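### Sample
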Amino acid sequence: MKKFTEFIEEHLAGPMAKLANQRHLRAIRDGIIATLPLIIIGSFFLIIAFPPLPADWGVTQFLTSNAATILLPYRMTMYIMTLYATFGIGASLSKTYNLDVISGGILATIAFLLTFVPVNIPAEALDAAGTAGFVLPMANLGGGGMFVGIITSILAVEIYRLTDKSKFKITMPEQVPPAVARSFETLTPTLIVILGISTLTYFIGFDWHSTISKIVSPLVSAADSLPSVLLLIFMITFFWSFGIHGVSIVGSLARPLWLQLLDGNTAAMAAGKELPNIAAEPFYQWFIWIGGSGCTIGLALLLAFKTKSQFASKLGKATLAPAIFNINEPLIFGTPIVLNPILIIPFILTPMVTATIAWFATQLGLVNRVIFTAPWTLPGPIGAYLATGGDWRAAVLNVLLIIISVVIYYPFVMIYDNNELEKEHAIAK
């Protein structure tokens, strides 16, 4: 074990830490995370439009009859989340290059929008379509266009960086106000971005969205499978076991896939269709990471109520409240789980067991599929209930998985507690 630990620290910890801080991955992560308020609030309107109430209630009939209007905030937020994410990605990446943040965000946004071909609806179709003139197709402004948005955002900022680094830009005298000077400095990269992407989209006829969709569709499909879920869980908990923030590394790579899965569910929900996907990010939050990475809610409960050593008992009582709200860094580094050969085993095993149970329960229709990104600090049963659109069975499943977490952690916590007791007795002597 010692040699294996040394190997991990020497050959894996460094490269993984660098990967987690790689500027492009960090920009993608930060840009997407910046849209979370819009995703959370926007998707909440789905629940309002399709309330988890009996269909014959007056309030239910009122809400469903006005669903099209109620869903408009959702369509202007979560439904087009990639439009907002591109600005965040561009701004974040520009910041790492010491470029103007706002200019980078705007360049990234226009680069993404130039991948769309506006549709011209003739005036004679006004009665049928409800509008006329040029309209922008919205479908790929959401999760379906996330990978295109990532690519074009990075491309736009890299062009901005190259023009700035090579001094291929318009430089104004020092007397010119900074805001005006920045506007002129970005004229060159703006011209290159607009001409370049416009040429590809409108004159060469390159279909960004269908091409990228064909490339990533196998990844999206695979991400919804149980083997993929288990692999991601193993990677995240494995890195955490050695003190490396697994969610930062794996989540940066997987989050665009998770968003596409969630977007597919919310779009289907809004259209009144069957939900297609299981393993969107809320599935991980409410059925796998209960109490935090490693499903450590069971560990916190056992430490607080079943241990006899003073250290374990006090640690459990101190960390139980944060664990209920899915904050478990005090547990991970306090017990510690990191480099602990006893607790690493249930830390990796427990979420894989809960994921398997939850995946089959969802696949068999025993629990609704997730449609809502509930705030991650909610207690598990409440978050599971909201994330599935008000399915009480999801709350029951969450409680069941907490019990299973306690059962799996139990023998390992008893070994851990006995070791702590021996240390305390030795000190007392």
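Residues 145 and 165 are 30 Å apart (CA to CA). This sample (Permease IIC component) is used throughout the tutorial notebook.
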